[in-house]
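Ticket closed. Logging final result for Acyl-CoA thioesterase.
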Amino acid sequence: MSVDAITFRTRKWVRPEDLNANGTLFGGSLLRWIDEEATIYAILQLGNHQVVTKYMSEIEFVSSARQGDIIEMGLRATAFGRTSLTMRAEVRNMITHRSILTVDRVVFVGLGDDGRPTPHGYTEITFDRDRIPPQTA
Ligand SMILES: CC(C)(COP(=O)(O)OP(=O)(O)OC[C@H]1O[C@@H](n2cnc3c(N)ncnc32)[C@H](O)[C@@H]1OP(=O)(O)O)[C@@H](O)C(=O)NCCC(=O)NCCS
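Final structure:
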């Protein structure tokens, strides 16, 4: 596996409520899943519960999925900034083996208690669970 390979972690089963009027996967559902996946990834990489989506680059839906298909989503951190984390995302269809979309840059920013960007201090990806933020409650 190449050093910058995407790790596909989450799988989704396409259900009737995820379809558009054309009977294929609704783009809005897919973007919600990607945003949630990226949020979890950012929390675990930055060690901070308070992360927000700042930017998503161009998205092209190159193929789709139908009811009953299984899709998988993957992310890879590509740059650690001072307060931000940039990731690449890919979604592919496990049934047709086709890529559904890629997003070259998804940027998350870690916030402090004042709601402003806060430095995270990290420069490298962790593959462990060593940055899980402490319980907030
Ligand atoms: C996130 C937010 C606090 C950042 O505020 P800001 O004034 O832009 O902050 P800064 O200018 O200090 O930038 C913070 C980081 O974002 C990066 N950034 C800012 N604008 C960017 C853009 N258009 N594209 C990519 N990165 C960007 C900066 O480079 C900086 O990263 P770095 O510290 O790693 O260098 C503010 O824009 C915000 O609250 N946005 C709404 C977020 C939101 O509600 N998201 C959807 C729901 S989760």
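The beta strands are 7-13, 51-56, 60-61, 70-80, 84-93, 99-110. No further action required.
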